Amino acid sequence: MHKSENSIPLKIKIIEGKLSELNTSSGNVEFIIYPFFKSINDIPNKEKLYSELNNFLQNTDKNSTVAILTSPIFAADFCTEVTPEIHLKLWIPIRLENPIVNSNYLTEQHSALLIFTRYKESLKHTKTRIAYTYCPSCDKTTKDYGGKKHLYHEFGTLMSDV
User: Fold this and answer.
1) Taking 90 as the threshold, does the pLDDT of residue 18 lie above it?
2) Is the pLDDT at 136 greater than 90, yes or no?
3) Average confidence score pLDDT of the chain
4) Distance (Å, rounded) from C-alpha 139 to C-alpha 124?
5) What is the full DSSP assignment across the chain?
6) What is the model's pTM?
7) Check: CATH 1.10.357.10 for 8-123?
8) Where are the domains of the chain?
9) In this predicted model, what pLDDT tens digit does every residue of 51-98 receive, in sequence order?
């Protein structure tokens, strides 16, 4: 069990079309899915696509977070074209359920999840706590307090402390 402080449930809005048609408001999380491109040559109208994506990123609120799920080849190429006002925070590999096998190159086993913001500071996120576990015999927490029991939250440990 876990608990996130000051969390707001995400609202899902599926758009099909141009990113320029999407109106972003303050502090949003935008999630964009692009096709899995096998090579740079497979990206149609690459310059126009990159320009549109860069414009979208630049027009988001300064506190917004944009996540892009795509192929590593697209991710690597797009990261070289990102404008200086946009900051890459994370590149997370996501294991593919069905790896892509081709005799001309290595088997592709991952997609790429890119996290971008317009602010330079560390990625802002909510504090998430994991509930303590309790001993079935004595009903005390299994966490070793190390003499600092007064510092522990009543619900559990921060994920960053685990």
Assistant:
1) no
2) no
3) 82
4) 36
5) -EEETT--PPPP----S-GGGPPP-TT-EEEEE----SSGGGSTTHHHHHHHHHHHHHHS-TT-EEEEEE-HHHHHHHHTT--TTSEEEEEEEEEEEEEEEETTEEEEEEEEEEEEES--SSPP---EEEEPPB-TTT--BSS--TT-GGGS-SSEEEGGG-
6) 0.73
7) no
8) 8-123, 127-162
9) 999 998 998 888 888 999 999 999 999 999 999 999 999 999 999 888
